[in-house]
Amino acid sequence: SSSSSSSSASSSSSSTHPCSHLDSLVQQMDEQSAEDEDNEPRLKTNVASAMPSSSSSSSSSSSGSLAVVVDDDAVAEDRVCMLKNAYVVKGEAALCMRSDGVDVEEFCTQLNEYRVRSGQTALRVAMVRPNPALHKHTLVATLHMESLPVDLLSLKPGGLLADAQERDATLNALYYNANTGLVEDPTGLGLDDLNQRLMRTPLPALITFRNDPLRVLRAFRFACKLGFRIHPETLEAARDDTIHDALCSPTSISRERVAKEARDILNSSRLLLGLDLLDSTGLVPALVCIPPEAGPPLQEAEARLCTRAVRLIHTHALDEQLSPAHRELLLWAALLLPIRHRRARPALERGLSLAEHILSVELRGAFQARESRQVGSLHQILHAVDALLQRERSTIRRSELGLLIRDTADLWRTSIRLSSCAHLLEESDSSSRVHEALSAHRNLESMVHDLDLETAHLLVPLYRGQELFSLLNIKPGPTVRKYLSLQIEWQLDHPSGSKEECAEFLLACAAKR
């Protein structure tokens, strides 16, 4: 085919690997990462009925060869599309089709014309234009084929080798030739690196990273996901100051893209490896990015505390009692714990802590406003948790613990875990001190269970609205809130109390005013 000949001519160093079907290569990768039960790539072959037949496709592909690029994330989600006369490539963007010499917009037009002629619905197309300032150098068209998002883009000028060299890692530059059944390795490094479980850039790492600094975090994410080592030259380039500056600059890299990679690292089963990589390269400030107008940048000692807090949570506070959403909130609250007392300057976001500002503004688009508020609330409630921990269990009233649960709602367990991390963060690593701190916090959790307070945040007053107004002969106003609070406190202290007993309590309170 034209695609096979053009790729061979483009690289004298290109190697090939016999493979009768794409599943064979995927099976190799599954065997390499057999221990990653949640993350190993899996593939379902789905011949897309949306694509034209060989006779009708000639007009759209006559000026160049077509290629499919399959991302590891896309494979993990079982999104794949096979094309005739195509290359299938493990890529960096998403499930996508690459073309050499084919106008992407024109291809989308002809594809939809074919679908309409064959009685199918035209596909929705979204275009992302090049934006070199944000390291977006290629026009990308995204088609939505039922539930399958498919990206279409052009190969880099210069053919297959040039395209491979522009990719983020050698193992992401392996091309499966659907015509010959061969896996082609234009860089000559990808197959060996895959077998050796090694992350390496096709070009000198500093060049690859300067083309798109986000590739540093992507390399870390891949290492965490697949358990791969990172090549020493690649790791050294990640320490470059220009790369650090670009990753912390919202005008250079989309903060949403940074946040996506950071979230994937923190949610990885190899989180500790990710923290080691961030520490060794000094890239924690890329995640905890403090803009100049918000105050002084994150200092090295603060950065070390940030990752230490996450390590403590990972080691001592994560279990099946926490939902995935609460687990992630806890990890981010721990990462931002060392800066919890710093506030964003009024010129930025009035009333927000710096941690909330980072999540809602600096990492905008990746976190919902509710999530950033929850992290701020977890930080603010620490003093109340600490106050209870300093007291003997027998002196803590049921209402005191219940009101704490009401302040944190279903995050009460998360807040206690974060409190244990805050205690340990300021202490030595002695095993006796760790055991003492963890025991105190576990006792507080068990007290919540023993007193049947897990759902205290769902408790409603026995008297509300008009019924409360009539009972106390009051009108709507600030006083109502006070009586509602007193009532909730009484109900927490008297879980078996009747409505009549509650009425007597409220009337007694009103008589004292």
Shape: elongated
Q: What's the alpha carbon Rg, rounded to whole Å?
A: 29 Å
Strand content: 5-15%
Poorly predicted parts = 1-12, 19-100
The number of E-state strands comes to 11
Q: What is the helix content? A: 40-55%
Q: Report the span from N to C terminus.
A: 92 Å
Strand order of the largest sheet: 1-9-8-3-2-4-7-6-5
Query: Quick check: average pLDDT?
Result: 77
Largest sheet properties: 9 strands, mixed
Number of separate helices: 25
- Determine the structural class based on helices, strands and strand pairing: alpha/beta
Protein described:
- The chain contains 25 helices and eleven strands.
- The chain is 51% helix and 10% strand.
- It has 513 residues and is an alpha/beta fold.
- Mean pLDDT is 77; it is low at 1-12 and 19-100.
- Strand 2 (66-71), helix 4 and strand 3 (86-91) form a beta-alpha-beta unit.
- The protein has helices spanning 2-10, 22-32, 54-61, 72-76, 104-117, 160-165, 190-195, 205-211, 214-226, 232-237, 241-247, 255-266, 271-281, 284-287, 300-316, 324-335, 354-362, 369-380, 382-389, 398-408, 412-425, 431-450, 465-472, 478-493, 499-512, and strands at residues 15-18, 66-71, 86-91, 96-99, 124-128, 140-145, 148-154, 175-177, 182-185, 198-199, 229-230.
